[in-house]
Amino acid sequence: MQTNSVQLIAFLEMFYAGVLIGLCYDIIQYAFYAVFKRRLFSDILFWLITAIIALASMFKATQLDVRIYLICGILTGWGLYFLIVSPVFREIFNKIFLKASKTASKIKYRTKSKVNAFLIKNKRTIGKINIARKRLCAIPLSIKKIYNKYVKYFKEYSNGTSSKKTKKKNNSQTDV
Fold this sequence. Notes:
Elements (H helix, E strand, L loop, with lengths): L3 H33 L2 H24 L5 H54 L1 H15 L3 H19 L4 H12 L1
């Protein structure tokens, strides 16, 4: 049996774990949604981190003795975090991401306009480079003719007739 002071300390440790879980939820939600635009990755990562935090805190507090007051401590910490701290934290994150998205769109626009100006200025040179690239990558006509000859031969062979000579031999044998 634990004393009341030990139980109170364990409850407070689990309360802090609940606050930390809520903070991790907000950070993961904003960071992953900004990058991936899907919630599946963030949900899986959140539950993995939640399990690690809860088990580590419970081990530190009571050597993994699961008690009702410990679970209530986590839930109380998480609930109070979402009622008090989360709205402020979300407002700060919204301002940060709004500013970051505006900056990113400005950079994207400037880069796109510079690339377009470069392409327009060097249109003839780029066209010459593309023509040279096509010539270098092209298969010579003599190789194409040999390839087509073999393709035709293998088509005839797969259809059951190997060549014109065998057709003549077959015709002369049926005439006799």
